[in-house]
Amino acid sequence: MLNSAREPAAVPTVCHWVGGKAQGGTADRGGDVFNPSTGRVTARVPFASAEELNACVAVAQAAFAGWAGTPPLRRSRILFRFRQLLEEAGDQLAAVISREHGKTLSDARGEIVRGLEVVEFACGIPDLIKGEYNENVGTGVDAYSIRQPLGVVAGITPFNFPAMVPLWMFPVALACGNTFILKPSERDPSASALMAELLQKAGLPDGVFNVLHGDRAAVEGLLQHPDIAAISFVGSTPVARVVHREGTLHGKRVQALGGAKNHMVILPDADLDDAVEALLGAAYGSAGERCMAISVAVAVGDACADRLIERLAPRVTALRVGPPTDAGTEMGPLITGEHRRKVCDYIAGGVDEGARLLVDGRPGYQDAPGGFFLGGSLFDRVQPQMRIYKEEIFGPVLGIVRVPDLDAAIRLINTHPYANGTAVFTRSGAAARAFTSAIEVGMVGVNVPLPVPVAFHSFGGWRNSLFGDHHIYGREGVRFYTRLKAITQRWPRELDKKAEFAMPTMK
Ligand code: NAD
């Protein structure tokens, strides 16, 4: 890693959590956890060996029957207590997230609140998991369906939401009666350890929720393990594609959410001040390291683009970059020095390809020692064939694409390989309706720049932003983490003992 200083003697080890106990790990492989604000190593994370992985799956498997047999109302009560404990631990958890990820404390608190919403949703499991019933589908015959848990399910999560993304998964999975193994990002693993402790305090039986740290090898181990029934993955598209392919090849149910390139369309009739504020937060919040970050502003008409730039460029130049714990900071550092280099390479590439760099976030930061900070960058006249348009940069870089009309904006967005989120800013209901109807993207905002669905709707993109059939959390989550069983029953007063050789029909 770039700009790092190791303090091996001083750093603690982040432990696995298996069977209700913290375990330091026995493997020689492991990784450094950085504080991106200082560039210093703050902890060491062990990478699970194959034996540790097998032992963890066995623990989760052993806990399954008891947990699946626990009445949903009792499972819900444990989640209610977890919700309370999580809220009480909010400041502590936000500090852990901010220290390892680099996002501001207010942003870290925001992700916890969005995660809490999913816990609140999952508390409604007795109602959510209800089946359907038909009396008398045939004479004296009733039919009903129930949803049952899958078994041991695993969640593999990215660095950018170390609490929220795991919370998209495990509250619903546990509520449905599954046992869970979380493989968090090795870059900011401590939030998951804290959540594991809170679940135990809430009364969750040991072995029902486990945390296993690791990198690619651990993911491959989970994908191949015969006792893992399903995998929820959130991360970059190349890995999501492999996880979906390998997981399904090994007979698992898989939902794999990938990367993004989210467009925000600004129509000439939009409230431009509102659009500028929205763009600033959505493009540069969390240093652009959000899968729903807006990375392309699609300005409809040159006049609209020029007026937008007039207001936006000075604000991007003035973004307050600094330590996430400082009250005035708007943008903290990037996750690693390596990632900052990658983002700087994209900026240089954009200039080489002919885009107009209006604000350059590199000077003063690019090679600075210490933290992995980078200023905000703004490009105009970005063209669809450029790499800065086609690829996910995942940093504080916004590109403006100029189009002549709304139809051209829709065509542009519908042909991009990513289709996670998008937004339109306008005062016209008709234009907004045309946009929401024709746009081929999973999550759409109308004058809302980051349309992350609330917990009782589900989250998911289209095309290269999601592989699998189910979106995550909400009712889609309940469907993903359960399987349907249909039961047809008959309790005849007098048994009809005559065999029937024709296909049974309801008489
Ligand atoms: P990543 O794909 O590098 O890592 C995600 C997880 O996969 C981590 O747990 C990591 O250990 C593991 N992993 C990494 N490389 C692997 C490999 N070769 N084989 C198997 N496992 C591997 O993603 P990241 O850098 O941690 O997170 C950023 C990415 O996640 C961005 O692309 C972002 O758009 C995406 N993301 C998507 C969503 C969404 O909901 N669609 C949400 C958050 C983040």
Structure, described:
- With 507 residues, this protein is of the alpha/beta class.
- The protein folds into 2 domains: 50-258 and 465-486, Aldehyde Dehydrogenase, Chain A, domain 1 (3-Layer(aba) Sandwich); 262-446, Aldehyde Dehydrogenase, Chain A, domain 2.
- It has 16 helices and 22 strands.
- The protein has helices at residues 50-68, 72-88, 90-101, 105-122, 125-128, 164-175, 190-201, 216-224, 237-249, 272-284, 302-317, 337-352, 387-390, 406-414, 429-438, 474-480; strands spanning 16-18, 21-23, 30-35, 40-46, 132-138, 141-149, 152-156, 179-183, 209-211, 228-234, 253-257, 262-266, 294-300, 356-359, 377-380, 397-403, 418-419, 421-425, 443-446, 462-463, 466-467, 482-490.
- The strands form 6 sheets. It has a 7-stranded mixed sheet with strand order 14-15-16-13-12-18-19, with helices on both faces. A 6-stranded mixed sheet has the order 9-8-7-10-11-21, sandwiched between helices. The chain has a 3-stranded antiparallel sheet with strand order 5-6-22.
- Helix 3 runs antiparallel to helix 7.
- The longest helix has 19 residues, at 50-68.
- The chain is globular.
- Mean pLDDT is 95; it is low at 1-8.
- Bound molecules: nicotinamide-adenine-dinucleotide.
- Residues 156-161, 165, 183, 185-186, 215-216, 219, 234-236, 239, 257-260, 291, 392, 394, 420, 461, 465 line the site of nicotinamide-adenine-dinucleotide.
